[in-house]
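User: Membrane protein FxsA, Paludibacterium denitrificans:
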Amino acid sequence: MRALLLILLLYPFLEIATLVSLADHFGSGPVLLWVIFTAILGIGMLRNQKLAALLTLGSVLNQGERVSIYSLLWPLRYLLAGILFLIPGVISDLFAVLLLLPFKGPALPVGPRPTGTAEDVIEGEYHRVDEPTDPSRRIN
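Assistant: Predicted structure for Membrane protein FxsA:
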């Protein structure tokens, strides 16, 4: 527990130290542009979080029998990466990139996909009935 507290207390100082050393090496302009770029990237990722979750669920349903644990956790990883990109600093950006890497995890068995049978089909006939409209009331 103390180690976690120590890491949480040292983390901001490490981020500031890396930003200062990068600014000393490359200049403050490129480092500032990097921080702004990653913040915009994080905002964009957080805005598209719902789309990522929807695409993940769609691909999981299409995979069939085997589903990876890491693919199920992709929306959470994407959300955490977006938050880490919002935090100014290089260390948080590295953790965000690591979260976005496509790891293959152990597969979970999923039951067989249901297929349509003859019992699912309802046969019948229909016809369309439109009410006649007055030609003078139409918008042309």
